[in-house]
Amino acid sequence: MEMVRRGGFDKTLFFIALILVAVGVLMVFDASGALATFNYRQPFFFLINQMGGALGGIFLLFLVVSVKVPFYENRFFVFGLLGITYLLLVLCFAMPEVANTHRWVSILHVRFQPSELAKLSLVLFLANYVQWFKDRINEMKIFLPAAAVLFGAVLLILLEPDFGTAALTMGLGGLVLFLGGVRLRNFLYLGAAVVPTFFVFLLLASYRVNRVLAFIAGSKALERASFQVDQSKMAVGAGGLLGTSLGEGTQKLFFLPCPHTDFIFSVIAEELGLLGALSILALFAIIVWRGLKISLKATTMAAQLAAAGLTFLLALQTLINISVVLGLSPAKGVPLPLISFGRSSLVCTILAVAVLLHISQRKGEAREF
Questions:
Q1: Residue in 213, 112, 126 with CA at minimum distance from that of residue 170
Q2: How is 12-51 classified by DSSP, letter by letter?
Q3: Beta-strand (E) ranges in the chain?
């Protein structure tokens, strides 16, 4: 039995997500003011763009939550979203290069990064695919189409190139399939194609190899490869317990690369200190807790897997970003959810939260994986 309570979504998840979005807007302005003034003669350049993404994402959130039916289980929606994702990923290669990459689609002077949408659409597709074929998912003729869809999207992201996002997407898709009951044997077949592909793409870019070697060996000869992480750790260390106070950090002043995107957590740690950084981590931990609770209470297998997948997306992306900031892994270019600058990432992450809130409105008996 299923009961739908309009407005009965998880309020804790809703308000925590809004708090993180607000923190993100504030910290993007704080971290990017000097850079925006230098590059665009406009200190509010990144702030305005981030606010636009936040407002657009929140509008979509209320729109999604207001829908009465479980649209995320509708075949037309699931295949339509997946088709649009593939179309945009291919269209990237017809667009002019940006920083020697093909990661964006530009329409009417608005840039969008399809790889961010790919995470969401693949989770929804795989969650539903497992439900459609739950009794036969381990048959090769059933498993291989799902694996091919996942691997095809990951390959397009690798070709952009975006190694970090591709690895995250592959891991996330594999996790959804594993939770859906796919046996280890099938993952061995998938790994036979995935592992060599990632290894080849790793070797094709010398900067990736240098980042890995710099992380493993810490060689002085590879100082340039570890420059970002070194500056990040300096910012974190300078914050101490209470931080230098908001706006008073110095690493963002052209010392720390990407202070408003990949390394925004470094700025938070420097200016708000250990207590501020731990507070942000606590908010993300609450989101993960609420997401897993929503998953366990979901009324269908597809909703359960979708909620779990989207929750792990937020968790894994947060852990990867912060591990890079602290020098616990090589630099990957993965943004901090809801906080880092980037309209594509912000809108798609808010949409992921919106789907979780929609699922939380549909009450029923708890299920188990």
A1: 126
A2: HHHHHHHHHHHHHHHHHHHHHHHHHHHHHS-TTHHHHHHH
A3: 3-4, 105-107, 110-112, 362-363
CB proximity list for 331: less than 8 A, separation 6 or greater: 211, 228, 229, 262, 324
d(CA 169, CA 352): 14
The number of helix segments (H) and strand segments (E) in the chain equals 12, 4
Q: Which residue matches tokens 């008996």?
A: 365
Q: How far is CA 25 from CA 44, 51, 87, 258, 335, in A?
A: 11, 6, 30, 15, 14
Enter the tokens of residue 280. Answer: 């942000």
Mean pLDDT split into 10-residue runs, the chain, 369 residues: 68 97 96 91 93 96 92 95 97 89 87 95 97 93 95 96 93 96 92 92 83 67 65 90 91 88 95 96 97 94 96 96 89 90 96 96 58
Burial 80-103 (b: 16+ CB within 10 A, else e): ebbeebbebbebbeeeeeeeeebb
Residue 105's DSSP bridge partners are 112
**C-alpha closest to that of 177 among 137, 217, 219:** 137
Rounded Cα distance between 224 and 251, Å, is 17
Give the contacts of 50 (CB within 8 A, at least 6 positions apart): 24, 25, 28, 29, 341, 343, 346
13: Cβ contacts below 8 Å, ≥ 6 apart? 286, 287, 290, 291, 294, 353, 356, 357, 360
List the structure tokens of 95. 């667009």
Q: What burial letters (b/e) apply to 50-79, b meaning 16+ CB within 10 Å?
A: bbebbeebbeebeebbeeeebebbeeebbe
Cα 282–chain centre separation: 18
Whether omega before 330 lies within 30 degrees of 0, making that bond cis, reads no
Percent of the chain that is helix, strand, coil (3-state, to 5): 70, 5, 25
SS3 category, 245: coil
User: Tokens in use for 59?
Assistant: 């509008």
